[in-house]
Target: DUF4145 domain-containing protein
Amino acid sequence: MLKRHSLKYGFGPNNIPQFQCPLCHAGVLRPSGETKPYEPPFSRAIQKESWSHWDDIQLRLCLILTCSNSSCGEQGTLRAEGGIEPNYDDGHGFEEWFTISSISPAPYIISLPAGLPDAVKRELLDSFDVFWRQKGLSANSLRNSIEALLTHFGIPDEVDGKWVSLGNRLLTYAETEPKHAEFFQLLKPIINSGSHGEEIQTDMLLDVFEALEIFLHNVFDDRAKRFEVLTQRLRDTSKGK
Ligand SMILES: [Zn+2]
Model:
């Protein structure tokens, strides 16, 4: 998973976060060209008013990103909104501070195993994409990824033409995979709050991402299968000697 710090906190203009390129997974998307913060005229106009305050200052950072892997060269954009805050480190003055409002193409928040079904992957890519704008929508896409996982595991979402709720699908799933079903059950209150429009704490959402990453690798990674193939090959080789 990406470092929690970069997913949770803002950054200064000299410390712009850099993410792995989601296209080649080898290079890093780096700002190319101008990286200076910009104060729009509407913010400057407010500064001229007698009632204005330092926290009325609004800054923008709009960056073109280019993948550092020269054979990839993917380009993207990052938009961040910010302002100034008292400098808490040295106790005097102010510093500029930004939070990302959109980044495209969206970086992978968690790594995805190669064997992950496409329907599940699509939902997770959506959850990465909207994470920066709307945590509730991101949680909602995570919920859709759990529904897609259950479909992949053969748990129907419709019986006799009637829609089956996630809760009931999990009860069916628990009959064959009680531990996995219990894990999904634990995620349910958090990913459901996205559908209900409730505010979601970033830390809780990141806990879901992190736990899901471990689960997906345990279930879909072909490393365990590859290990079996390799040990069998070594066994055959040593027998042949
Ligand atoms: Zn790239």
Residues 1-107 form one domain. The first strand starts at residue 19 and ends at 20. The chain has two domains: 1-107, 109-241. Residues 21, 23-24, 27, 67, 69, 72, 74 surround zinc ion (CB under 6 Å).
